[in-house]
Design a protein that fits this description.
heterodimer, A: 404 residues, alpha+beta, 7-stranded mixed beta sheet, 5-stranded mixed beta sheet, 34% helix, globular, B: 375 residues, alpha/beta, 5-stranded parallel beta sheet, 4-stranded parallel beta sheet, 15 helices, 13 strands
Chain lengths: 404, 375
């Protein structure tokens, strides 16, 4: 290596400000560590395995530290459903709006109105392309909000629809979207009862964006929430994962890959009603949208302070989705679904729950994919089909922008 | 799935693991480097290290194309892209690599026109569609991607495009391996050779590693059984006191490489006297630039590139990790100051980097894994 002397060089290199800040933070975090050993009367460095444990502990502390948005500007990764999205929500929105209803950050808020339990949620849809195999932005906007209510165990009743339209957008396309929304609403047994329309100049939006909000009632006493997961609980998915995300990616036509796959967008309220009737031991439900099943599993592990172990062989993935994922270097565990749920169920009710899912047309390929463990808390592990083990972490970055 | 599942068969893996364990001499430690980031990714994605005896350690090498790009080059690229006439195009995995003022993603959020492409040829399409703009392709990678950049330049020349150029950051693998072999604190016993690079350069360029340094090399494929078999082949050589170059990935890698691809590279690019590598410093003759005869496609010739130099932070121990002296978690800032979201060092930048792979997939001691998965 012929390395010029960096410090003596006339064009002395600069350093990056953000790096120096990160290092200062690190020093503050680890300041107490050296003295901890001296207190134990051991001047020798501890053996390798102990040191590795210490490093892992330090990382756990760093990960639990108060989230902070480090970027000056919003990037695409803030919308990808991974770590950056979570940080943005917790550091900025939760901080601004903090209240006990919002705080659990579940898919829908649970409200008590005159003795009735009401669930409320909202979601915006910016998918590109607007029309794709198996659906379009219209049924996606209805199903997504219906599903967020369903995951709270609510019976969805009423939806709002807000449209942001770009100047020049085709009226025929808008009519097609509205028709598709109405069909989806009828299928889910809900009504669109209020709405709003805005138009922005050409170039200020991409055709059509939709926001829907929904309310529903909770008519049973089952307390659902990812924080309720306990060691021994069983984790299941309601069908093959990743169909929607891969469909959208291929539908953009940038990859020159064709496959016979369709979005799985569907309303899950019917299946959830059957599930909760058959298996009151359901502890948590989540629909695996942005960030995919991997993100849900991490939410379970983090919220309940438990470990999650899933088995790659047991996770249903269609051959077409698996093939496209292999080609693109994507892990289907992180790819969005729009009609699949992840359920955490008490061991006693696991068989009933699986049978109820499989009895519903949307859950024919439901499968148990893993279990909740006491240790190690906060970490999701995957037993690979090859016979090894690895961690499944929250996604960093954004492999698939604007899928919903 | 055909052509995939055969290479991920757990029974065959168990059989190979038993043979590897049987080859370990009592009391001897084995450190094998997989040079290529693609191998690192496979190893972690499939949990391959669970099959290895405690005596065998894998060291994750410098073969991740985005990891080795120094911050200064990212800053230079951003300076180019900030010209309002310029559309910068880049592979997706380059988008997250931070310079001293953030990544391409951050620059995009500030309004710079940076577009993600899946192939350098897509840049030509953008150039044709935007005749009033100047399209610059951020060319990165080893000999694996250099041929497609070369073919793109040749295509642009054939079409007579005048608004397309490349910002060339192509690097070559052999000088980096040599730099690692020459480091005084080297602790490696053998190399798992880079499969994709070798499809282009073949196996001959590695011969000096066996001849001059006495270390075995096995060029390996990218499925987990490929890697496990290559480890077995290395262990067999070590047990027999051999050091030679073997090709495990013969279904793809020809011994003499791909002469058409090499010719295209040679026609359009030449070696730079030296190039800075993140984590490894300056290495002689380790990178490619556009040949003078194609200077009209060379962004470094067409634009004034500031030539920013950003020092690797002193706390960063990527060099030691790359040489196998430290494990990723032994670096002082691993996982606290340096994480996949804010990667300070090269090894944390892409999922193929040693530290990022360890952070994302392996962040547990084997002891803890066993406890959790066997209970």
């Amino acid at each position: 290596m012929t390395a010029p002397d960096l410090d003596a060089s006339p064009d002395r290199p600069t350093s990056a400000r953000w790096v120096e800040e990160a290092l200062r933070e690190h020093d503050a975090q680890t300041a107490g560590e050296a003295t901890r050993f001296e207190h134990r009367g051991s001047p020798q460095p501890p053996p390798g395995s102990v040191r590795e444990e210490l490093v892992l502990e330090r990382i756990d502390r760093a990960r639990r530290a108060r989230p902070r948005v480090k970027e000056d500007r919003i990037t695409m990764s803030h919308g990808a459903g991974g770590k950056a999205t979570q940080t943005l929500i917790e550091a900025l929105f939760l901080d601004a709006f903090r209240n006990p209803v919002l705080e659990p950050l579940e898919d829908a808020a649970r409200l008590h109105v005159n003795g009735t339990q009401v669930a409320m949620t909202t979601d915006s849809y910016v998918v590109s392309p607007l029309f794709f195999p198996g659906g379009d932005i219209g049924d996606l906007a209805v199903n997504g909000t219906v599903n967020d209510l369903s995951m709270a165990g609510a019976t969805p009743l009423f939806l709002s629809a807000g449209f942001i339209l770009e100047e020049g957008f085709g009226v025929a396309d808008l009519a097609r979207i509205a028709t598709s929304m109405q069909a989806a609403a009828r299928r889910a047994g809900v009504q669109v009862v209020t709405g709003d329309t805005k138009v922005v100049e050409k170039g200020k939006a991409d055709g059509c964006y939709i926001n829907t909000a929904g309310i529903g009632v909770i008519e049973h006493s089952i307390d659902l929430g990812v924080a309720r997961a306990q060691a021994g609980d069983v984790i299941m998915v309601s069908g093959p994962i990743g169909d929607h995300g891969i469909t959208i990616m291929l539908a953009r036509g940038e990859l020159d890959i064709e496959a016979d796959i369709f979005s799985d967008t569907a309303p899950l309220n019917g299946m959830v009603a059957d599930l909760l009737t058959a298996a009151p031991g359901v502890r948590a439900l989540r629909d695996a949208t942005r960030g995919g099943v991997a993100t849900i599993l991490n939410e379970i592990a983090a919220a309940a302070g438990v470990g999650v172990v899933v088995s790659e062989e047991d996770i249903p993935v269609r051959a077409e989705v698996r093939g496209a994922s292999e080609l693109l270097g994507i892990d289907p565990m992180y790819v969005a679904c729009e009609g699949r749920l992840v359920a955490v169920v008490s061991p006693e009710d696991a068989d009933n729950a699986l049978a109820a899912l499989r009895a519903h047309p949307l859950g024919e390929r439901a499968a148990v994919i893993g279990t909740v463990t006491a240790e190690p808390p906060g970490i999701v592990q995957l037993k690979t089909a090859f016979g090894g083990t690895r961690i499944v972490d929250l996604l960093v970055g954004d492999p698939l922008p604007r899928i919903c | 799935m055909k052509f995939v599942d055969e290479f991920r068969d757990a029974d065959k893996a168990h059989a190979l693991a038993a043979r590897i364990a049987a080859l370990c001499e009592p009391g001897r430690q084995y450190k094998l480097m997989e040079v290529c980031g693609g191998h690192t990714h496979t190893i972690y994605k499939h949990g391959l290290e669970d099959y290895l005896p405690e005596q065998v350690t894998l060291v994750h090498g410098p073969g991740c194309p985005v990891c080795v790009i120094p911050m200064g080059r990212v800053d230079d690229a951003m300076a180019l892209a900030s010209d309002p006439d310029v559309i910068m195009t880049s592979f997706g995995d380059m988008m997250r690599v931070p310079g001293s003022n953030g990544s391409f993603f951050d620059a995009k959020a500030r309004g710079t026109d940076i577009r993600m492409v899946y192939s350098p040829l897509d840049s030509l399409k953008i150039a044709r569609q935007n005749p009033d703009k100047r399209v610059v392709f951020m060319a990165i990678g080893f000999e694996t991607t250099a041929p497609s950049t070369a073919m793109t330049v040749l295509r642009a020349a054939a079409e007579g495009l005048t608004n397309f150029s490349i910002f060339c950051n192509h690097v070559t693998i052999i000088p980096a391996i040599k730099a690692i072999l020459d480091s005084p604190d080297l602790r490696l016993d053998g190399f798992i050779g880079p499969g994709h690079v070798s499809t282009v350069i073949g196996c001959r360029p590695y011969e000096f590693i066996a001849r001059d340094y006495g270390k075995p090399v096995v060029v390996a494929g990218f499925e987990p059984l490929d890697i496990l078999q290559s480890i077995y082949m290395l262990m067999l050589q070590l047990a027999n006191g051999q050091a030679s170059i073997e090709n495990q990935y013969s279904r793809v890698v020809p011994w003499d490489g791909n002469t058409v691809a090499l010719r295209a590279i040679g026609q359009t690019m030449e070696l730079r006297p030296y190039f800075e590598w993140r984590g490894l410093g300056f290495i002689s003759h380790s990178a490619l630039k556009v040949r003078d005869s194609y200077a009209r496609f060379d962004a470094e010739n067409l634009f004034s590139v500031p030539g920013v130099r950003v020092a690797d932070p002193k706390a960063c121990q990527c060099g030691e990790v790359l040489k196998g002296v430290l494990k990723p978690w032994e670096c002082k800032v691993f996982g606290t100051a340096c994480t996949p979201e804010t990667p300070i060092g090269t090894c944390m930048v892409s999922p193929e980097g040693a530290c990022a792979a360890y952070y994302n997939y392996g962040r547990l001691t084997r002891h803890r894994v066993r406890e959790a998965t066997t209970s």
